[in-house]
Task: structure prediction
Amino acid sequence: MSGCAATGRIQPQFPPAADVEQAQQAKPRPTAAIATDEVAREAYNIEIEAWGDRVHDAAVRSCRWMNERGSNFVCGETSAERYERLHD
Result:
């Protein structure tokens, strides 16, 4: 019977708020200028790449956070880890 007695409140755990928020960042919207302006097109491409890295990195960190709490996901590497591996 002692196993049925509630001794405390269960506290849910959540991944870091910064990672949850970052993983939901909206994709940058293109402007009409990227169709005719090489500089605008390149700036947009850089912005898209940076956005993709931020969202991916947040997902990797969240994956690792869940694994630290008992999950068994394959998490991959962050963009910084990938850069370091490729540029050693």
